[in-house]
Design a protein that fits this description.
In chain A, strands 6, 11, 13, 14, 15, 16, 17 and 18 form an eight-stranded mixed β-sheet that branches. With 516 residues, the first copy, chain A, is α/β, with parallel strands linked by helices. At the A-B interface, helix 2, helix 9, strand 16, helix 10 and helix 11 of A face helix 2, helix 9, strand 16, helix 10 and helix 11 of B.
Chain lengths: 516, 516
């Protein structure tokens, strides 16, 4: 269209339409935010020491089970007391401290696109999408078992959303793919549809070995010195590391890839009911797994993860977004800092079945503590519903805007002569207004966080626009976003090599037992 | 019903019904929570000083307008430079500091029921309901102009909800009452339907004088030494105190009642667009009003209020629950602490038209900073919608539960031998579970925050229960609550005296101009 032939009115209309389609959610910074303020500390030094001392006693006196022969051998070789028949290991403080000494305080997680590398540690707070869901839901199609198309669409959205800093992850299981080849397809899509830092389930040795191999291909044939892939190692609390997780831990750590050691504790079920006990146990479990990564490969990148919340004692269900969970998040961050380790928290956890008020408040009970406590990796930061069974396209949008708000919040605001604008205050004086001043006009478009989702119109306009709630507004947004997706560039030779790897391994793994 | 004749199964059913009707929302503590952790500080000492210095320059060089003759005389008598023709006052630092020196660092706001007295200051964080709404909404009747029945129902709910610590307030205007007598009816209902600490609009001298007189009656004929009533004094920003607010300020301060001095600043409209300038101006405005209360009566209880947020520059509407608002809340708290003054924040501010995800997230962008920054009085802590035009019965319930969660959060968790439960951890060992242990069973009912609103059931149960969202669940809750309301006791003679006062003044004020 030739702008010269348009009236000013037509041009304004066009500009407005342009603005509408430029998707404000994509305008936010993609930089990993850094929290400039000291982390909020719940625990006194004495309390921190009490938790530390209690976890040392658990490691030494109670011990843990490691259901994997190689893990038991590693512990024995390092001098721990091991009961092979019972797969039981007791860990003394000295050995623990030796192991912790080699764990890096922070590291860089490389992405295929170097601009999307993320720093893990310090005061950097990186957000990633949800993972591990069985169901997917959106307002049009409703709740259903996830398939490849859903998995790939969630990947595309994660790739596009600038406030998600990492994480091509198995957001939803592609149930239409055979189990034996699912991870291969998942990795292929992950590496080709997005160029952000990659996660792949630490489920045994086969999947993780394939993940490392495909990462090697995606990175041009040689793994970089920094890690490029990894995932969560969940402890089977209380005090048990199962064979799948240990196979994943050993494979990733040996390859210098990321292990995010995360006890999964619902206080009252997997630990004693009191949060102090849950934290002491969490700490013992996390430190044991972290130590093991260092026995596998000193210096292997590792993250201290916390996923401790309470049980709903009436129903036996997990309770997410609770005061107890917030305590655990903040205290867990303090513990990780005490050991000079990066910390992993979780963002959008909720039991709600809808992207409604419960979904939002429970999410905020996680996100605020993550930001305040300096959780370096905030996993599941957007899209969770239903205790992690379902990922919601609409909640992904709603949470993503919250993440962008937190990133903006962490930038803080300058206090200097220019921002204090005393001449402007004097010039307007009492009783005037500041809409039209040069100071305000110069910053009109850029000063404030620009919301894509909040409706600030008057009641009548809102009614006239269909009286839509937040989730309904978010629905249009993700569809619009997906429509604008374009694949990030990749060397065709690498892509072909990935494809060939998948083809070859798909045949090899046809009848394999994967989770060993 | 004779329990002896019941089967165990019937008894369990009865107990369950009993539990359902005992309204979990009423089980929470009514104590004003105290934040045990240091307040979150955004500003460095230098930044705080820069804001302080900028506001001193505004007071000295730009000055403020005080649109009330008595206020101008007070300033002049105290030695300030006053331009009576322009109602303009310039304030030097020395005078300001003299005034601030007599303002109390904290005080007790007395309620008719002494158990409901609230401490204002220190690390105590008291929550109150919304005020000043024109419309009221609930899921059954929809949005409508408020009337006396709505006003009284909101009063009853405020009275019952233990997490609302103060505030019989004009939550919604009773449009069915004539303007001239509305405040009299409002005060009468406030004093009789609830025994919590009372607020009454600081609108000129007549309303506030009636408020003080009726408080005197309600408190048995003599005002206690501590304040028993008061309200917000909004600054007509930029830099203007209007006649209504000054009449209220002078009347309340003279009677030793509470003035909550609150500049109402939307950055970009009532102040320069930058948050630093908005805060410098807020600080100048707040300090000027606080100083005036001390000129009226040295030692008068006064609160430093902040209500600074940004304008939505596209629509010109206020933007609530934003990162900018959170900065202002936290920095405002630091400024108030710097002057050793109690601080007032706001809780449930939102632009949303519904108790949906937007309503919830925006509310949490206020509540977290209020709690973290130690806002001593959190006004509008529950029920806001639509930028303060509408109060929602359902959102009142949703927000109230959040307040209870914050109160629980602030209690923290003990770390001691009992809570660390090392014997329990050892006894269960790796791989077991803690549901049935003596440690867990002894704390089964009391350890965790008990939610009334969050749905943690599985998807199928939730579907079978009607697939209700949070607001729908909240609807049943406030209706159930109201049905259980009973009026707090009051000496019939005092009640009669209040009634007679209202009757007499209703005649006297029939044709009065109230807002002077």
């Amino acid at each position: 269209m030739n702008t010269a032939s348009q009236t000013p009115r037509q041009m304004r209309r066009l500009e407005r339409r342009e603005k509408r389609t430029s998707l404000p959610l994509l305008q936010h910074s993609a930089a990993v935010p850094v929290n400039p303020w000291p982390p909020v500390a719940l625990l006194s030094t004495d309390e921190l020491q009490a938790l530390h001392a209690a976890s040392l006693r658990i490691l030494r006196e109670v011990g843990l089970r490691f259901l994997d022969a190689e893990a038991l051998q590693l512990w024995q070789a390092a001098g721990a007391r091991v009961d092979h028949a019972r797969s039981h290991v007791w860990i003394e403080e000295e050995l623990l401290q030796q192991c912790l000494a080699t764990a890096p305080q922070e590291f860089v997680w490389r992405a295929r696109n170097p601009q999307r590398n993320i720093r893990v540690g310090g005061n950097a707070i990186a957000f990633g999408p949800s993972g591990g869901m069985v169901y997917v839901t959106d307002l049009e199609r409703g709740r259903r078992v996830g398939d490849s198309a859903d998995y790939e669409n969630l990947l595309r959205l994660t790739h596009m959303l600038p406030m998600l800093h990492f994480g091509n992850w198995e957001q939803v299981t592609a149930q239409d793919e055979p189990v034996s080849t699912r991870h291969l397809r998942r990795l292929y899509s992950g590496f080709t549809l997005s160029d952000k830092a990659m996660l792949e389930g630490a489920q045994g040795r086969i999947i993780t070995a394939d993940a490392v191999e495909m990462a090697r291909i995606a990175f041009g044939g040689t793994l970089p010195a920094e890690p490029v892939i990894g995932d969560v190692i969940n402890v089977n609390s209380p005090l048990t590391y199962d064979d799948r997780m240990l196979g994943g831990l050993i494979t990733y750590a040996r390859a210098g890839q990321v292990c995010i050691i995360t006890p999964f504790i619902l206080a009252g079920a997997m630990s004693p009911i009191s949060i102090a006990a849950a934290l002491a146990q969490q700490n013992a479990e996390a430190l044991a797994g972290i130590a093991l990564t260092q026995l596998v490969r000193p210096g292997a990148p590792v993250v201290y993860g916390g996923f401790t919340t309470n049980t709903d004692m009436r129903s036996g269900s997990p309770a997410f977004g609770t005061p107890e969970g917030a305590w655990a998040l903040l205290a867990g961050a303090q513990l990780a800092r005490h050991y000079r380790l990066p910390y992993r928290g979780s963002g959008s956890l909720t039991s709600s079945k809808l992207a409604d008020a419960q979904g939002a408040t429970e999410t905020m009970w996680n996100l605020w503590p993550c930001v305040l406590g300096h959780a370096n990796l905030v996993m599941h930061a957007a899209g969770w519903l239903e205790g992690g069974l379902t990922v919601s396209f609409e909640k992904l949008m709603i949470d993503a805007e919250q993440l962008a708000m937190f990133a903006h919040f962490m930038r803080g605001f300058p206090i200097d002569d220019s921002s204090l604008a005393l001449e402007s205050i004097a010039a307007v004086g009492p009783g005037g207004h500041h809409f039209g001043t040069a100071h305000t006009q110069a910053r009109f478009d850029s000063e404030f966080f620009a919301t894509a989702l909040a409706d600030r119109t008057g009641y009548d306009s809102w009614q006239a626009g269909g009286a839509r709630d937040t989730a309904q507004r978010a629905h249009g947004m993700w569809r619009q976003l997906l429509a604008q997706y374009s694949e990030p560039p990749m060397d065709p030779a690498l892509r072909e090599e990935l494809r060939a790897y998948v083809a070859r391994r798909s045949i090899e793994l046809r009848d394999a037992q994967l989770f060993t």
